[in-house]
Amino acid sequence: MSRPNGTGQSKKDWDLSGKKLKSLPQSLLEQAEEARRLDLQRNKLRQLSGISNLVHLRELNLSRNELVDFPLEIRSLKLLERLYMNQNNIKVIPEDIFPHLGKLHFLKLSTNRLPKLPLDLSQCHSLTYLNLSNNCLKDLQALVGLPKLKELLVERNSLTELPAQLFQKGNSELTLFKATGNPLRTPPEEVCDGGVRDIQSYFAMMEEEGPDTHTTAWTVKTMFLGSSMAGKSTLCRSLNKGVPMRVEEEDRTEGIEISEMEMEGVRFLFWDFAGQEEYYLTHHVFITPRALVILAVDLASYNMEDPQSYKEKVCFWINNIQLRVPASVVLLVGTHCDQCQDQDEVREKKRHIEENVRVMLEERKEVLQLQQKNLKDNADPSLFSEQMSELDRLMEYHLQVLELVPIDCTKHEDIVKLKEHIVRHILTKDTFPCAERTLPKSYKEVELAIHDLVGQNQIPQHGIVSFDDLLSDLIPHLELGEENVHSILRYLHRIGIIVWYEEIPALKDRVFVQPSFLISLFKTIVRHDLVKQLEAIPRDALRQEGNLLVHRGTWVDDFREKGTLHNAATRILVRRELRRLGLDDEDLVEEVVGSKTKEGTLLSLLQHFEVCLPAKVGSPLNPAAPEFKPGEKQWKSSNLARGDTDGACLFPSYLQDNRMVVQMWGEDKLDDINVYVYFLPEVPHGFFHRLIIKTCSLYPTHWIGKDHCLLSSGDKLVLMREDNKDGDPYIQIRCKRPETSEFRRSWDLFLSVMYKLVVLSRQWPGLSQHVHTPCKEKGCTAYFVWRDWQDLTETDIYDLVQEEKQLCRNGHTRRTELLFPKDPVINKSEGK
Ligand SMILES: Nc1nc2c(ncn2[C@@H]2O[C@H](COP(=O)(O)OP(=O)(O)OP(=O)(O)O)[C@@H](O)[C@H]2O)c(=O)[nH]1
Fold first, then answer.
1. Which residues have C-beta atoms less than 6 Å from ligand 1?
2. What angle do CA 44, 50, 53 make, to 5 degrees?
3. pTM attached to this predicted model
4. What interface predicted TM-score (ipTM) does this complex get?
């Protein structure tokens, strides 16, 4: 939205944003009665003396100021319709304000310090939108009775329960409700994630069943992570059985193994993740919030002299957990103690790891603080306020890394000791506030009914069942309506008991009652020894797909050199795995594996999770390609890849080099447009490959390498490069300097990549990013920091910079459009 900028404004519409104001200016107060809309965001206001004179005000924006007290005078603004008070320091809202604001329908109070709400807020009868996210609220009782409230956001507060009346069907107009980041028990967060409908079902079932029937369940998803051979499976199986279990080396985990057990009334869902790097790409999908992470570290092979040892065995995992689920609880377990020389060595290593972790977490905090200080030191910090509040949010996350427990997995008493240790932590609400959940008994009944169906072979052992079949099998056993069963199934999916990707059109009719089965399908393709698997495909399996030995050779070569796996090979590998698992349902095999004419669900899933993308195979000459005719306006690029079920899929993570990309791109030039996106603490594992998949799906002409990718749109090329080694990790985006008239087109291409990058980053809420453009002067080390840009959907990014030229800290002047998105044509025509 572009606004009048200070001069020549109408008297109705005042834009006083970002002017360092500490009080309302006299010029405004002199014309107070005329003002209809007032934008005061990004100032230094602590009080608003005189605002009550603006009696005709409809919209007031006070966001990003320094208000501590909610200004009482606001109650005089009886015509106010929209009020923005977000990003202040408000601690208290007095009573007797909101009943006076009879026309207010939009209220944004997010990112303040409110511990409670005034009880008469419920008398603000016109309110339809209310944002209270990022406060310290403990209950929402004050909101009961708001008759028109449609959208309510209360993310990241301290709520443990929600008032049932807020969601009562018939009385409530709510259509949107978001509450992630609260220690919710009634209803649990996994129910709230399903939105208003699921919460309504939950409370309706609670009421129907009566107060004595609710169960308080303690359920904990426990994820075992750590390097290969650290002892995760040994730990997992030993804890499960209560005695040491030996895991043979050839019995290593591939993908993820799931099991379940109960300890002291707490139900544990164990997810044992394979340690080899190849599997990490699919792990990402299953590493979910509100879980306990057990990070296994082999103490015997841990080398205190070698920094790489800490990096690989501890740092990599903690960083990745912190990026993906920043508020996790991590329990360090040091295994193989019996293979250390003596107890002194164990103690030394324990101390070394704990100290390193402490320093690492401390450093991260310091870097975030430093970054914030740098932004504040800017001439106009208000231009960086989004980035600053993002840093605030990151600093509030608290990754809890518990004291390291050294054990010998072969010793009975060590297993018992560890078991007790885990239960003690889970039952301590301070460490793990989300384990306790209050649920109507129907939730357990649905779960047991599914279990029974599997036991009675009404659901096949592999557990893949159509949604409708499952529903019609379940309903006769339960006294529940269809909608309630739906909402319970959604809950079971969220806590990891079943898998149901309702949001993926190709899969919404399928429920995976045994999640481990789905994972075993993933691991037929995403695995460390895929070449060996391909080489071992027997002749009869080849023939069945209409292929010869020579094809198998091509598949191996294409996979090794181009990271490309032919769909025919995928079909053979997956079909073989299904047979191994005892599946003889040909229809189902075809559905999962696909055929020459139809894509299977497995590839749909891997594409959905950005693990691979369709690729072209065969001759580079395509006889069906549309012919280029000069002058013809619409020349469609022929994207053979899409929908070519007999084609192949490209897995960027399997690529070994960048030769092709480097060849196509040529040399870097000093005057290229060149932007660096820095990542803190590092570029998450798999991020760059997912970015490649996201952007290449947009631009079908592309070249991909190990950590380079080149995209083409018309005659414009954009290069992406990842550097995640020592130093400051970044992704670089680069394109050749365009003709002056073409800056806008180049920046459009750039921004589409950056937009995909922003969308992808949301999968890693613990990530911090900042964007720089280096100074173009030869030898100059200075750079230009991008102002707030992340909210690309709401801001007009071409408003980012209005100056024609920018000065680097070493005194070099540069034209703005070489550094930031800025449309010279627009800016000239507006005479800015
Ligand atoms: N002596 C001894 N051996 C252990 C201990 N913990 C695990 N092992 C052995 O170490 C080997 C690797 O253990 P696993 O549990 O398979 O390791 P993992 O971390 O699951 O390995 P991946 O499946 O590759 O991720 C097995 O042979 C275990 O029996 C321990 O505390 N002491």
1. 226, 228-234, 246-247, 249, 252-253, 274-276, 296, 335-336, 338-339, 408-410
2. 130
3. 0.83
4. 0.96
